[in-house]
Design brief:
The structure is a homodimer of 647-residue chains. The first copy, chain A, is an alpha/beta fold and 647 residues long. The first copy, chain A, is 28% helix and 24% strand. In chain A, the strands form seven sheets. Chain A has an eight-stranded parallel beta sheet with strand order 20-19-18-13-12-11-22-21. In chain A, strands 2, 4, 5, 8, 9 and 10 form a six-stranded mixed beta sheet that branches. Chain A has a six-stranded antiparallel beta sheet with strand order 23-24-25-30-27-28, covered by helices on one side.
Chain lengths: 647, 647
């Protein structure tokens, strides 16, 4: 019951929120954060409300006044822009607007020509009350009016003095602090723009060499940078670059035996030379790595490292921290299993160890170690098999030192688990894109991904392929299939990636599986990076369009439009007056034509107006009119249009 | 980081909840509470979960195991029945199922015929671990199996011993307490069944007399009880029965002047005889009141009192607690105003008084005073003009002493405010029913009211009319309009009411207003309670049907079915095998016929099956077949069918 006499306001149903505010909204600098709520009090008296917000590190709260946009539904709205990387705090504060209420009620009496002498006296008393909490800079004006009121003769003159807009403005912006009711403090995580907008190129450094059977090095990667940058990529992502274990080392094609020259699988991390904070010597030295980081910067590229909590049987942890691993009853340390499968070259760390706190701290140390070496993007391998609580802790710890660090969650598992990882801190996430090929499933999945609540916490990084996934669609579809998937990946999301070789439309599958034969995971490979049949030109064009048109850089502006042919996907992205429309033939084998329906109203076009659509891939221009127009897409030529609307 | 190594589970999106668990769900004894949530952990290991629940006063938690009903979506479900009036607590607790995981993994190895000797040893160690937390009564069996395992020869024999269903049953029901993760504690408010199912009759006791101009008394009310009970009502609700103020007393038709014999408005409460804890002498004494309460009980009726926080200028509070009221600058106490309107016979209590705590306590005293006199239902007048925090406090205070007290919120204001009052404690609420007459608005409104989230906290008590509201629909529609509204009120919700005179289809409006001329609020009236043209028989039948058919006693089982004529509303209520269908002609002037579509599948009927529909109002029976059937409703005869389906 304490001091509740002035607390009359309820603030309900704040939106958007992630899990009712348990997790932060995700944004990037320059983004708008809408704040919508139902705010009301008992009785008929007026209220006012503000959104208060600040970058978490700061003390000073900025505030923006909320508008009641639907009084019948008590709907209040405001919003603000985030600028700084890191966390923001925000909350809603609402107050009783006593002066506004008085003014409204007294105004009615004045209008009805009833006696309001006593009301004027009440108004003056009320204003004097406000003086006790008004900030110094507002007092002079109010005192001045009080003085004038003192001297004024007649209630109508007083009414005119007291109902002046400036006084109202001052008082309605400084309501009684005792009536303040505030919402819970809510959070926003602001990541740098690259969290939302980037094109990733994944490659094994050892596959960047030029001599068959000889490991490529960081220096060889530097030689490839002009070519990778020319394709328009922003992020260069390496699978683990640490020393590879020798015991139980895997041979080519995941063979259980290997010859002396086999380089092993980089995911079997650690040998006598060191573990997660060491570099595999055949790739180069820390100096070479630093040189590579610097070279990348020159080409507008940024290194992303894999973070795989796997230990080879030779990892120093096994000797230094045997208690970090599960043991068998006979005291030996257990390798990884997914019964009845065995993974004898990998020892998983046991996060349920009683010494788990030192595991958490060591993982933090590894992240910070590489962050200090200039790595600010980590692709985390299988985070869904480690504790949720660990991730939420370690991500916040790392980002509190390096707010620009991006964490990509490589979890391909059940939707709730993938979403949970995103909510509790991962900046970006892999997705089911790799297995969505048909119109309905693409539409449904991307409508879910790019609208709230999901778009407020999940940034899907679309991979066309990975070292582990050679999708059936690509296996059978030849070059057209690669083109189709490139266009979809580059335009459905703002962040996407390819794994080396995709640009060459290469790959031989392990029969009956979505896996690569002779995978780079188990052997050293070399390639002709300009092999005939490659689609590097298309990829370059797609990345150029993405960079040139800001509409392509927003994640949540994707909209699907109607295409009458079920094999043609038609969608668009708009920002202000910039409208792009993409039409993709989803069938790599057959030419499909379709009537497509342009959302004229959205684009500000009249029903019979002519307009030009400019295919940015082919530079061809077409004159269209009205909503219904015709496209024909031959997958052997170009399976997609990326149209810019020109009025 | 403390002790988080075994906490691997997330519990998300528990439903149904009211405002994410901020407010309790509402239920009545015998009701089912479904508990649905997304529950999952990292990794592939198994988990298990329980709903734990208890009546708030009790210490012991009951528990019911949750089922994973959709593993791909990590959906878990359970539910429980509430029995006791008052609050219930419940929560979800989930654990790692270590033995279940071990059994699954080892089973795969056994099946794959790989070596599992070490796994058996692990299993035995795991079982020994369980012994440390297993309850005494389960230990014997487990120890016995351990002994047998000790003696067993060969891993297959051990496997058979260890994989026996009884052991699994014991261990999966007693998982590792260290792995327990629990949800927030959630609440349910269980009110007695009358909160959901009751028919209210509102009357002014002073209008229950027999001699014009002479106030009716409680003794006169007793004389009316057989008739009111015969109509099937359960609750007899009186506007305020307290002494009526003399100063500024209103005359007939809300006139500002009154003659000596005018009884005044009962909402202007208090005079020198007393206030809210006193009885207006012209109605009788406390002894008479006690006699009335006892007489009501015999007739299956229960008294509901009005709780109106209004004071007449003569209320003792004005002298005893002048600081409870707002004052003008000249020191006089302010009467109620809604500028420019003045209500000089009513002084509102100022809940923003610095002495508000004593106001809250006094209001509690008044409620408890009447509760002690046998009143367990309060209809609260205009609760939306008093603080939300006060209501949530006083309702919980009163119900903690008298858990069976029902509070009806008489707030006709904006939807968010009406809903907020229901969420924070009011048992029932008035609704917009009084102004919903057309098919679309009735359908939309009642679909909202009777489905979650609203049906979980809002029980709409439908009034056909009130002393303040004489709906336009009734004013113009004659007896058919009264019948239509009676059927709708009695069948759309489980709790409804009429204000005296409705059964007589009486009423003269104040021209152009939805108000009664010569309202009982301002004068003493007498009526012929059996005046010709009354619809008491219809009301009796409706109340009889409601009592006879349990399907009519559920609030959230309302479903609207298709009627092809827009003037015919067709809906139904089902419970188990009991199906009632109601067809109402919404037009009081014209006979309407319509094809109506029976939901055959819901009723378990074949597409060409014959079935009987038995009109419980007329006792006529019709043979119907298939979904599409014909009704014709002449409002001058009977504007509605209430069909019981007979197969």
């Amino acid at each position: 019951m304490s001091n509740r006499n002035r607390k009359r306001i309820l603030i309900e149903n704040i939106r958007p929120l992630v899990d009712n505010g348990l997790y932060p909204l995700k944004r990037e600098p320059g983004d708008w954060v809408p704040v919508i709520a139902d705010i009301f009090r008992d009785g008929h008296q007026k209220i006012c409300a503000w959104v208060e917000y600040k970058s978490s590190g700061k003390k000073h709260w900025s505030k923006v006044k909320m508008d009641c946009t639907n009084p019948g539904l008590d709907l209040w709205e405001a919003g603000f822009q985030v600028e700084q990387i890191g966390f923001y705090d925000y909350r809603i504060a609402s107050y009783c607007d006593d002066f506004g209420t008085w003014l409204l009620d007294t105004g009615k009496k004045v209008e009805a020509d009833t006696d309001f002498a006593s009301d004027i006296l009440e108004g003056i008393a009320l204003i004097k009350n406000y003086l006790s909490w008004l900030p110094e800079y507002e007092r002079a004006h109010v005192k001045n009016i009080l003085k004038k009121l003192d001297k004024a003769t007649g209630d109508m003159q007083r009414w005119q003095l007291i109902s002046c807009p400036k006084l109202l403005h001052i008082l309605e912006n400084h309501p009684d602090p005792a009536s303040r009711v505030e919402s819970d403090k809510l959070k926003i995580r602001v990541d740098r723009v690259k969290a939302r907008f980037a094109a990733w190129y994944e490659c094994f450094p050892r596959s960047c060499g030029f001599e068959p059977g000889v490991s490529g090095t960081f220096k060889d990667v530097i030689k490839r940078l002009p070519e990778i940058a020319a394709m328009g990529f922003d992020v260069l992502y390496f699978p683990p670059i640490h020393p590879v274990g020798f015991s139980k080392r895997k041979g080519p094609n995941n063979s259980l035996t290997c010859s002396e020259n086999d380089p092993g699988c980089p995911y079997s991390i650690g040998n006598e030379l060191g573990g997660h904070d060491e570099i595999e010597p055949s790739l180069g030295t820390f100096e070479d790595f630093a040189e590579l980081v610097a070279a990348c910067e020159k080409f507008g590229l940024e290194i992303a490292l894999d973070f795989a909590i796997n230990c080879s049987p030779d990892h120093p942890y096994l000797k230094e921290h045997p208690d970090w691993f599960s043991k068998r009853p006979d005291g030996t340390i257990k390798f990884a299993e997914n019964p009845p499968k065995k993974y004898e070259d990998i020892y998983p760390i046991n996060f349920e160890s009683s010494d788990y706190k030192s595991i958490w701290k060591e993982m933090r140390r590894i992240f910070l170690f590489w962050a200090k070496k200039g790595v600010r993007i980590f692709r985390v391998d299988n985070p869904h098999t480690k504790p949720f609580a660990f991730w939420s802790w370690v991500i916040e710890e790392v980002q509190s030192k390096y707010p620009d660090v991006i964490f990509l969650s490589e979890a391909f598992t059940r939707p709730k688990v993938m979403k949970a990882l995103a909510k509790l801190g991962f900046t970006q996430s892999y997705s089911y894109f790799t297995w969505r090929n048909e119109k309905q499933e693409l539409t449904e999945y991307f409508e879910e991904l790019t609208t709230p609540p999901e778009s407020d916490f999940y940034r899907a990084n679309l991979f066309t392929n990975t070292p582990d996934i050679f999708p059936t669609f690509l296996q059978g579809g030849g070059q057209p299939a690669y083109k189709i998937r490139a266009v979809l990946a580059a335009t459905l999301s703002t962040v996407y990636g390819i794994f080396q070789g995709f640009e060459l439309c290469e790959g031989i599958p392990v029969p009956g599986k979505e896996e690569y034969l002779n995978s780079d995971k188990y052997e050293i490979r070399t390639r002709d990076w300009n092999a005939p049949g490659n689609i590097k030109e298309l990829i370059s064009k797609l990345n150029k369009i993405r960079k040139e048109y800001p509409a392509m850089q927003e994640y949540d502006n994707l909209e699907f439009y109607q295409a009458e042919n079920n094999k043609v996907l038609f969608y668009g992205k708009s920002l202000g007056d910039q409208h792009l429309m993409i039409a993709v033939n989803l069938d790599p084998f057959v030419t499909h034509s379709s009537f497509v329906h342009v959302p004229l109203e959205k684009f500000g076009l009249g029903p019979a107006q002519e307009y030009q659509v400019h295919d940015l891939l082919t530079d061809r221009r077409y004159l269209w009119r009205g909503s219904k127009n015709y496209v024909e897409l031959n997958p052997k030529v170009e399976p997609a249009h990326v149209f810019l609307l020109r009025k």
